[in-house]
Amino acid sequence: MKQHHSDVHTLAAAYALNALDPAERTAFADHLPYCQACREEVAEFEATAARLADAAAQTPPPAMKHHVMAAVDGVRQLPPRVTVAPTAGFASALRRRAVPLALAASVVAAASFAGVAAWQNQQSDQYQQRAAQAEQRLNDVSAVLAAPDARTVHGRASNGAVTTVVASERQNRAAFTAAGLPAPAPGQTYQLWLDHDGTMRPAGFIHQDGTVLIDGDTAGAGAVGLTLEPAGGSRRPTTAPLLLMALPT
Fold it and tell me: What is the DSSP letter of 122?
């Protein structure tokens, strides 16, 4: 990743992601104490990267232990051993009955544990899939932030949230970051939009503070918007925009 000295201000994202070569990193580090804007951008990108990395970690929900323990409680236990010596006739009859009973108990136990194992495997697969999706989102966002042609613009929504858009023309992608975003009312969600010559097209959602990749073709868009919409989103904005700012060029 090579940049002219005059473009040193564009290295903030790559510096935060440790994506600079040694010479560039040294040059940017020397520049950083004298540029407040770059220091603020580096801090924002580092905080965003930390939140995205944390999102990739998946921990089992508390309900998982409850379900497993409930399933284990349903497994029939073997009776305790006794030391009383039965008579020969009774012992023979007991052995004849004990064999099928033990086999039946073994089948029940095996089926119960197999069910628990299958449920655990299913849950594990779901967690792994979510982790893989979160990791892919992290990689996609990181690629935009560290793009050589990345450009940044800052804004503030009418509800007080501080926003940042980083766009890469080469990748035809942009990332949207929000900080201080108030929780939406029940039944509502924040929806992003891309303005294509006055036509607002859906561009994904952001549910809380953090960074998301903007959906859609950013190359032909002039601005990005943010509105509150019913849960699930809308095909067209149904409320006044909380934010409408030009995409960085």
Answer: H
Between CA 240 and CA 155 the distance in angstroms is: 17
Residue 123 · residue 64 · CB < 8 Å: yes
Give the mean pLDDT per block of 10 residues along the chain (249 residues): 55 75 82 82 72 55 62 56 52 49 51 57 66 73 86 91 91 91 93 93 92 88 94 94 89
Q: What are phi and psi of 35, to 5 degrees?
A: -130, 105
Bridge partner list, 196: 199
Give the length of the chain.
249
Q: Tell me, what DSSP letter sits at residue 20?
A: S
Contact 224, 247 (CB under 8 A): yes
| Residues 168 and 149 sit within 8 Å (Cβ to Cβ) | yes
CB 13 within 8 A of CB 49: no
What's residue 199's pLDDT? 92
How many angstroms from the chain centroid is the CA of residue 108? Answer: 40
Q: What is the pLDDT of residue 5?
A: 45
Q: Residues 19-25: contacts with CB within 8 Å, 24+ apart?
A: 19/146
What would the DSSP string read from start to end of 130-188? HHHHHHHHHHHHHHHHT-TT-EEEEEE-TTS-EEEEEEETTTTEEEEEEESPPPPPTTE
Identify the pLDDT of residue 41. 79
Three-state secondary structure string covering 181-239: CCCCCCCEEEEEEEEECCEEEEEEECCCCEEEECCCCCCCCCEEEEEEEECCCCCCCCC
